[in-house]
Amino acid sequence: MKPKLIVVGNGMAGMRTVEELLKLAPDLYDITVFGAEPHGNYNRILLSPVLAGEKTVDDIMLNTREWYARNGITLHAGDPVVKIDRPRRTVHSQSGVTIRYDRLLLATGSKPFIIPVPGHQLPGVIAFRDIHDVESMLAAARNHRHAVVIGGGLLGLEAANGLLRQGMDVTVLHKNSGLMERQLDMPAGELLKAALERKGLRILLNADTAEITGTDRVTALRLKDGREVAADLVVMTAGVRPNIELARSAGLQCDRAIVVDDTLQSFDPRIYAVGECVQHRQALFGLVAPIWDQARVCAIHLAGFGHSRYVQRATATKLKVTGVDLYSAGDFIGDVDSEDLVLRDPRRGIYKRLVLKDNRVIGAVLYGDVKDGPWYFGMIQERTDIASLRSRLLFGQAYCEPRAA
Amino acid sequence: MTLPAPLSATATTATTCPYCGVGCGVKASVHPDGQVGVAGDASHGSNHGKLCVKGSALGETVDLHGRLLYPKMDGQRVSWDTALDRVAGGLRRIIDEHGPDAVALYVSGQLLTEDYYVANKLMKGYVGTANIDTNSRLCMSSAVAGHKRAFGEDLVPVCYEDLEQADLVVLVGSNTAWCHPILFQRIAKAKEARPHMKLVVVDPRRTATCELADLHLPARGGTDVWLFNGLLSFLHQRGVVDTALVEQHTAGLARTLAIADETAGDLSSVVRACGIAEAELLEFYELFARTEKAITAFSMGVNQSSAGTDKVNSIINCHLLTGRIGKPGMGPFSITGQPNAMGGREVGGLANMLAAHMDLDNADHRDIVQSFWGSPHIADRPGLKAVDLFRAVEAGKVKAVWIMATNPVVSLPDADQVKRALAKCELVICSDIIEKTDTNAYAHVLLPALGWGEKDGTVTNSERRISRQRKFLAAPGEARGDWDIICDVARRMGYGGFDFDGPHRIFDEHARLSAFRNEGSRCFDLGGLVGLGRAGFDSLQPVQWPVPHSPRPLAGEGLGERVSVNLGRSGSASSTDTLSPTPLPQAGEGTKRLFEDGRYFHADGKAHFVPTPVRAPAHAASEQFPLVLNTGRVRDQWHTMTRTGKSPKLADHVPEPFVDMHPQDALACGVRAGELARVSTQWGSLVARVQLGGGIPRGSVFVPIHWNAQFASDARVGSLVNPVVDPVSGEPEFKHTPVRVEEFRVLWHGFVLSRQELQLESATWWTRIQGRQFLRYEIAGRDQAMDRGAWARQLLGAHDPQADWIEYEDRRSGVYRAALVVGDRIECCVFMSSRPDLPSRAWLASLFVKDQLEEGDRIGLMVGEPAEKSVDTGPTICSCFGVGRNTICAAILEKNLKTPAEITGCLKAGGNCGSCVPELRKLLKELQIVDSSF
After folding, report:
1. Structural domain for A356, as ranges
2. What integer is the mean pLDDT of B449-453?
3. Is the per-residue pLDDT at B587 higher than 80?
4. Is residue A328 pLDDT above 80, yes or no?
5. How does pLDDT run across A1-42, given as a tens digit for each residue?
């Protein structure tokens, strides 16, 4: 009898690990997958285009139920695991399924952070995490006028753009003084704000929500500075929290998330974890690229080829808002030892910034002209020595390639 | 840009170039759009239709930008009456209180002969002082003194044709290729036609002129007397002596020879003194000895020396000994620097001359001049020469000085002394065409004069050829001719004798004076040009003096070669005035060559050998100032750049002030090519970019004379030059000042291209270069901490936060770049860096002529390069056709070009003015070396 691998979480991280594992050792495990959502596996990153009406749910499905069947995987969709019994090596689902495991893979992801202001439980206050949320927003857009998005990060702006595209009057509330501060520096944030305002979004910065009001549904939102904003729909995109209650209750070592080593193994050698629920060398993860790396390394270890380590690498982000070209990668904030190359051409809506350290690119923010993004990202990852290119680097690949004599 | 108004919409006017002493004929016309077009005058005997790059660019210098258009007093515009009353009243009061020697005129080889004549007349005949000196003192007074000592009069024996007919041309201290390009081209062409013709260049620098030379003798600066004493001794030892001429027509050989033998009688002493190889020295001596048709042409390298007059005589001595004078293709030849240095000499515009080649210390001459003028006084002792004049101003002895058409704060040695002097002077009057100059800053009264194209009169070039400068542009503002201003002041001072109604009247008086009581006693005689009248003057064709009224009495073997001159081409298109059909005066005759009859102008009728003891330059290099400063011109600039500095075309060749030095000296001084250096002497200092041009011998440095406070923060080489003068001529030693070169530390380098003029006080160092529709500023600074973005916005006036301001910053590298775009056009851009590795200005400059920037240009603006891959043509070599070095090199290699002519065939480069041909030749040579090494 094959050893049993239980995967908790039917999201992108877990299923990518399974796919990698199947490539390496298709017949090694008897695999069972539990998922909270009642679907097959889909590409969560593409929910924004679905909301914006640019893609359909079918377009973003990754693995259909047939795929699970074809690969001999047992899928329990819509049935989350509620308990892990480590001494007995069993998991227990909400519906009462109990299965013993030889290896357990936790890929429980994260959940949106709902700011606990008064009124946060009112109908019409939602997050932006899954297909259900998208459906709620699309429904609201059909019947309501005023949408408020709390959180001007990557996700919030994509949500706001989607709602705008669905015909709503959208206000984005952002606690900080610049949009997308995790991906953009202030000047780029200002360019982005201006561009989004031109598209029709209303953006309030330094906006701290005091209270959400309404009786049977949200009707308005009040800020700490007293301003009031009409709201039929409030979307909270103010960050996520790793889903670690299950792991913690099983006594696994957790900090801000499930602590794993370079092989993605938790403190329990039988239990691995990948994705947004893990903490690796102090870092948490939200973007897809590092998670793909984790999946590959974890699969190697699950397959028994213990020769690979997960190494954190720089990440790159593109904002999926049509008409806004934005690319950010790596450590674009830098520190006292880093150096900046900056280009500003506000009239053309172009802002570019590269962060250098020890003659290497460690971060990039491109706004308005992103065509060299991948090239810089490659340099970040390869740790290319750019000393000889420095004077031309920011002007792009075309200026840096050897010229004909 | 304001363009001057033409006098006539269609006419082409024959006039004369206002730059060097070659005196080329120019055909000028005003196009319907107001631009002035110029071309060489094919009928002019000095240039036969050719023009150098400076002459070709004259049209770019006549706009009214920066012109002084109205009289000003203490910075305020005033009427002519007010200004001239102040001048006349001020001079009158000072003369009355302190005597005539308390006033002085400092004039210029840029003046026309007629201006010069009345200025001289005013001072020497009416004020009663010889305190009138000229900037010609700085360039050829040693030649004048040498001529007078040898020939008894300031006479240039030869003409340009002699350079072409010679079998040996020796150029001494003359970068003819750059400073007298048309003469050089005539030599080059002759050499091409007659390949056996030899060219020897004596110059401590390996200049562009050397590219054509068969032999370059890099004699150490200030050692020419050794070289030519040695030659004299050598010739005598070899028996190369024209005994007949020496015996019948000269005096003083024995003593002269004794000195020569004593100082340079054997080759080794010359080799030691001059620092040249014995083999090369011998080659030169033997070449000279065996070549009958030899001409020795010399310029500032000879004249600007504390032994300048002796240098001139040491050269002339060799020609007298061998009888190589007064015959075609031979003779000593002073090539003058300025367009009318000769004219000034003719009228006596130097403190130690009287007028019409007559002498102050000759009572007969004084009587001739005074009785001719009918003047109340006649100066009877020499006045103050340039350097002494400004010392006397500082000492308070001279209390009023009137400076005309020259810029002594830039051009005199120890020029900071001139500043001090002018600052203390009671009354400083400046007549000029440009309002802001280093000198005009000290003027109490500024008088607007007419410039080239506006003024009317004559000039005389190096071969004694009198040519007309004719006006073809209307007088701008209230500007007036210098002669007119001087005469007006003279009348206001109560003097008669200044009621001229035009330059033709002055010329006529000048011609009559030259003939007055002459009877062949004075060579300078314009008797044949008397009575031309206005029409005859206007249509005067170029003619070489003397032009006696009737053929001179025979004396000796024969007549000088005479040239018939048509004095009145009726209906000629060369004048814009309507020519009167009235009968014109009879044809006079000019004189190509002097001394053909063996007659000289000392009292004894002989030429004099002048003993020339050797002496080293006044100040030797020392531990503190270990190198020797040499100064001179660059190809495409003129004097203090008031005119050539306006031309984008002329700015391309050498855009910045530089110090050229030997690489090993640079290493020893701790300075590097392309970076800034402080160059200091005991008298002053400047900052310039280091250049290792390859032509400078160890131990010396070269700095150009042109740059000044209008064009750079700190580049006036005059302030460094030792105020040492030749004891005979009073000409300063510009070519030899002990100097120190040190690193000039700056923390950032940069440049700005801007359509507007900028105030750059906040930069540590700057220089301004005229471009096409923009000004280029090279800048450097020491303030590391400043916010460069804020500084640049402030400097360039981009205060509006909504301005279309593109910027790039690499703060750690100290790199900041920004550009301001206004209505799709580039307005300005700035590039700054901690290192001097700034991008090429060439492509950025090309954006300023575009009405609209293209998409790719905007990013290119921050790189300094076009987005698409285009060829960098390199620094401009041929200014006329704008052909760059890289283009030329590529063509040479690709098409295997062998000669400058082939390059011209391919690229046009060198095909217009030909000034760059030496550089083309150098490139050909360099590339051949590269080829053979593979």
Report:
1. 325-400
2. 96
3. no
4. yes
5. 899 999 999 999 999 999 999 999 999 999 999 999 988 889
Closest alpha carbon within chain B to A387: B813
CB contact under 8 A, A394 and B815: no
The per-residue pLDDT for B588 is 59
B98 and B182 share one domain: no
- Residue B798 and residue B700 in one domain: no
**Does B730 share its domain with B773?**
no
Partner residue facing A340 (CB), from B804, B805, B811: B811
Which positions in chain B have a beta carbon within 8 angstroms of at least one beta carbon in chain A?
804-813, 815, 821, 837, 858-859, 862-863, 865, 867, 869
Which residue in chain B has the smallest CA separation from A401? Answer: B869
- Average pLDDT across chain B, whole number: 91
Domain coverage including residue B767: 748-863
* pLDDT reading at B808 higher than 80: yes
- 8-state DSSP, B473: B
Q: How far apart are CA A62 and CA B216, in angstroms?
A: 85
For residue A50, which amino acid is it?
Answer: V
Q: Which chain A residue is nearest to residue B803, measuring alpha carbons? A: A347
pLDDT at B143: 97
> Quick one: pLDDT band at residue B559, thresholds 50, 70, 90?
very low
Q: Reduced to 3 states, what is the DSSP secondary structure of residue B801?
A: coil
B544: in domain: no
Please indicate if any CB of chain B lies within 8 Å of the CB of A394: yes
Classified as helix, coil or strand, A90 is: strand
How many domains does the structure of chain B reveal?
6
Cβ-Cβ pairs closer than 8 A, A with B, add up to 54
Q: Are residues A226 and A185 in the same domain?
A: yes
pLDDT at B689: 95
CATH number at residue B729: 2.40.40.20
Residues of A in contact with B808 (CB under 8 A): 341-344, 394
Final residue of a domain: which of B519, B553, B574?
B519
Write the burial class of residue B230 (CB in 10 Å: 0-12 exposed, 13-18 middle, 19+ buried).
Answer: buried
Q: How confident is the model at residue A295 (pLDDT cuts 50, 70, 90)?
A: very high
Residue among B147, B105, B102, B313 nearest B225 (CA): B313
What is the b/e burial string over B3-25, where b = at least 16 CB atoms within 10 angstroms of the residue's CB? bbebbeeebbbbbbbbbbbbbbb
| A49 band by pLDDT with thresholds 50, 70 and 90 | confident
- According to the model, what pLDDT value does residue B867 have? 74
Give pLDDT, residue A55.
84
Q: Do B810 and A340 touch (CB under 8 A)?
A: yes
If asked whether residues B883 and B764 sit together in one domain, one would say no
The number of domains in chain A is 3
pTM of the shown model? 0.83
Are B102 and B214 within one domain? no
Read off the CATH number of the domain in which B232 is found. Answer: 3.40.228.10
**Amino acid occupying residue A376:** Y
Residues on chain B touching A404 (C-beta within 8 angstroms):
869
* Min distance A193 CA to chain B CA atoms (Å): 16
A248-267 CB burial, b ≥16 within 10 A, e <16: eebebebeebbbbeebbbbe
Q: Which two tokens stand for residue B606?
A: 């002989």
Residue A308 domain flag: no
Residues A100 and A186 reside in one and the same domain = no
Chain A interface disruption, residue of B812, B816, B834, B886, most A CBs within 10 A = B812
Q: Mutate which of A335, A337, A338, A344 to disrupt the B interface (most B C-beta within 10 Å)?
A: A344
Q: How far is B904 from chain A (nearest CA, A)?
A: 23
Q: In this structure, are residues B490 and B20 in contact, taking their beta carbons and an 8 Å threshold?
A: no
Mutation target to probe the A interface, by most A beta carbons within 10 A, among B749, B800, B806 is B806
Stretch among A93-102, A149-158, B424-433 having the lowest mean pLDDT: A149-158
**Which residues from chain A sit within 8 angstroms of residue B807, using beta carbons?**
342-345
CB–CB of A347 and B806 under 8 A?
Answer: yes
Mean pLDDT of all residues belonging to chain A: 91
Regarding whether B127 and B149 lie in a shared domain, the answer is no
Report the share of chain B in percent with pLDDT over 70. Answer: 94
Chain A interface, best mutation among B787, B806, B810, by max A CB count within 10 A = B810
Interface touch B863/A344, C-beta < 8 Å: no
Q: What is the CATH number of the domain that holds A168?
A: 3.50.50.60
In a domain? residue A314: no
B336 within 8 A of B462, measured Cβ to Cβ: yes
Residue B783, pLDDT > 90, answer: no
Are B278 and B164 within one domain?
Answer: yes
